[in-house]
Amino acid sequence: MGALNRKLWRDLWRIKGQGLAISLVIGCGVAAFVMALGMLYSLQETRAAYYERYRFAEVFAPVKRAPQSLLPRLSAISGVKRVETRIVRHVVLDIAGMVEPATGRLVSLPERGQPVLNDVYIRAGRGLTPGRPDEVLIGEAMALAHGFGPGDRIKALLNGRKRELVIVGVALSPEHVYSIAPGGFVPDDRHFGVLWMSRPAMAAAFDLDGAFSEATLTLLRGASEPAVIAEVDRLLEPYGGSGAFGRKDQVSDAYLEGEMKQLATMAKLLPPIFLGVAAFLLNIVASRLVATEREQIGLMKAFGYANWEVGWHYLKLMLLVALIGIAAGFAAGDWLGRGLAEIYTDFFRFPFLHYRTGPAVFAGAALISLAATVLGTLGAVRRAVALPPAEAMQPAPPPTYRRSTLEHLGVAHFADQPTRMIIRHLTRWPVRSGLTSLGIAMAAAVMVSTLFFLDSIEQMI
């Protein structure tokens, strides 16, 4: 081990307290970055796989009552890849143990085979049996809220007639990743749920033989969604069409997309705050270290060490502090991300949600952290490199103070001596003073924004 490397470890031990504090600040920024982007990528990959595997529709067209004979005309629209019609109705549910009624979204499934679009994943139990009109599948959210399972019974008001339905399976659907009642703000799984019934049974119950109440479509690559929606609306308008809409306006997907945008915002907002503070702290520590080691710097240069070797020594010291924080941030971010994934499973109903952080996330976190470290240390390194050996061997000259602007204006005349000293110190190092104020402002902003969310939710409730 060379002399500079031995000095490196001694210096690191000497500033262990300050170094640990800076490492923790960097670790917080890295952890926030890894957690947010890791969870974002996990949600994006899970959503893409789920939508593709279970054929989630891209256009939804509700209608009061339209004849099944419209199906060929809908399929013939330019840009349409697949079309499926179905029956959808909202019903009142009578659940044992609940005084107030619950509501359900009843969706039809083909009596035989799988639906062309919006397939369901059977979490427990089995699918519907042809010829048994009282069998239903129930969404997992409501099933967990009430403890329903295969074999349980539930009463529903179908077109004014109360019927007892038999639950044969617990299901999930890409259409109801986030299950929320119409007009609702947050999920209420005790009072709202999704059920699936065979199409012949629903057609008989709601007098919709040979008709449908909603059409769902997927589009060809490059097709114009607005043009397809306009043509669908034109065809369904005579039958009470209430306006087709794209996937981005579908409630479940809109909430999921909004959550992913929040994660992206978190990844852009929080890490720069922590890393900016860390860069400022690194600048202070490195500057003080260079100032106190002037004679050592002079000796190193006198013994033949090049300027770049001296500068690299101090930069390496700060990079080592940063690497400790990066490693801690990797571990903390991965742990927090897995915990966040468990929380998301209570709100978003996926058949699977695996938290996976790709190498790009870790590489990005490391790069921005190292960039902040270099930026914060660069000024001190330049001063160490620029010191001539003869000048470095001498003590640093005292700072030259001069009358501040306030003193020239005569305002400082009314202040006492300590106040004038403070003013001179602030004007002597304006960048340091400004960055200190900025760091305090950012810390206050984080606290205010966090408490804002808590107060907002409490106020809404």
Helix count?
14
Strand order of the largest sheet: 3-4-9-6-8-7
Global mean pLDDT: 86
First-to-last CA distance: 64 Å
| Main beta sheet | 6 strands, mixed, barrel
Q: What best-fitting shape do the alpha-carbon axes yield? A: elongated
Describe the protein in words:
54% of the residues lie in helices and 17% in strands. The chain has 2 domains: 3-50 and 258-399, no CATH class; 56-253, no CATH class. The mean pLDDT is 86. The strands form 2 sheets. A 6-stranded mixed beta barrel has the order 3-4-9-6-8-7. It has a 4-stranded antiparallel sheet with strand order 2-10-1-11. The radius of gyration is 33 Å and the shape is elongated. The protein is built from 14 helices and 11 strands. With 461 residues, it is α+β, with helices and mostly antiparallel strands. The longest helix has 42 residues, at 251-292. Helix 7 (251-292) runs parallel beside helix 10 (359-386).
